[in-house]
Amino acid sequence: MKFDFLNYPYQSQRTAVLANRGMVATSQPLAAQAGLDILKKGGNAIDAAIATAATLTVVEPTSNGIGSDAFALVWMKGKLHGLNGSGPSPQSISIEAVKERGFEKMPTHGLVPVTVPGAPSAWAELSLRFGKLSLQEVLAPAIDYAENGYPLTPILGKYWELAYRNYKQKLTDEEFQHWFETFAPDGRAPKIGEIWRSAGHASTLRSIAETNGESFYRGELAEKMVQFSKKYNGFLAEEDFAEYKAEWVQPIKVNYRGYDVWEIPPNGQGLVALLALNIAKGFEFNEKDTVNTYHKQIEAMKLAYTDGKAFITDSRDMPVTVEELLSDAYGKSRRMEIAEQALDPTPYQPPRGGTVYLATADGEGNMVSFIQSNYMGFGSGLVVPGTGISLQNRGHDFSLDPEHPNALKPGKKTYHTIIPGFLTKGYQAVGPFGVMGGYMQPQGHMQVIMNTIDFGLNPQAALDAPRWQWIGDKRIQVEPQFPNHIAQALIRKGHQIEATVDTGGFGRGQIIWRDPDTGVLMGGTESRTDGSIAAW
Fold first, then answer.
1. Which residue in 438, 274, 242, 280 sits closest to 356, CA to CA?
2. What is the domain extent for residue 487?
3. pLDDT tens, 470-488?
């Protein structure tokens, strides 16, 4: 692949970053720099990804934490590897047990929606299989920021304050007070530019580093999490942690106009992005900013999401295979349902997400697409005392309908929103990409890939281009800079267009492309957050 899209008429005011010895792109400048420092110390792209991910648990806790889940796509020596670092539900949980507590659907906060956190195991597995440096060396930057502190960046400060106000009003029970002790130690959220530190985070990260993650699942940290769960009548027990290990999986793909677009297989929702592209590839898109382009993109995504929400769950429980869903015949049958007017598929209400994404590349051609998340910001609202471990709430997506494919069961992995992406052509890597943000993620993947392949935008322009998001029914949210004449034309096709001034819900992405002939790296970072690229 050549960088032949640099002169496309639509380009953003920000420019793509180019380098050749290493690159880290993520949503927080200090985390990006931490990853680059590891590259300069002799680490590879995998070491840099782990360092960046661990640092993000400290410098962007509004979106992820040590108690997160994680997924990764790793390009190493000409082959793509997938890692599923999502955890299962506790063995003692059941639909009946949850309903006995008075819930008709899975709650958002508290211990009930907490599943086994997978991120520390993902770090350890990546390090063991592909890393060049020890986990102690790789986690050192995160430990340093936790011990010595860092100043809050603007977007980080905004969402920290919003979470504090929300939690102060809603999370008043005793088990939630440890969140306030950790993230609002002065009785308020830290302000933009103010230094925040956490000795608990530092101690926990050091323990994970020294034991290669063992203490988190079969040691002192596991004991603390289980004690906390038992104290507040949670379902997590010793065996849930002891039996867990991040799982290496075979990535799935569709071929889109000569490029292979890769995602992690279910229980992740990357399948939705592939379903949408598999539908869209049967259309010709000659121009980006036309009503025909947007209408068909939106309709393809609506159909893909309808299927995704109906079928995606733990791969063992899916009622249909990935191969069937991604077949050309199935894509054609869904494509034929798209007409001139907006479809009205089965509605649902996707919640907002809280996720961090990063991409890394080194001078040897190794590349990593990595995503890590609590969920809905800080997650469950729970912090294990003295550890800095904020627990995710991924179990919220389980259904309490026993007939639904994603029905809650013991030891099951739920439908998961976080998805890393990767692009190849032939047998060569183009590079990692991702757009975080709950149910916006596959929608962002589709738009970024089409911006790149169909419309020739460089990585920064592909990310900066105005986005749309299907919300449910015929409702489509668009960003303020979305072309008004196209919005009006979409309304005439039956779409319910809602312009919004808050761009936080449209996802936050990163891209690194690599020229296979020269090894030159080209990166783009998200303008909707405190995004940064550290390059060498």
1. 438
2. 249-352+419-511
3. 998 899 999 999 999 999 9
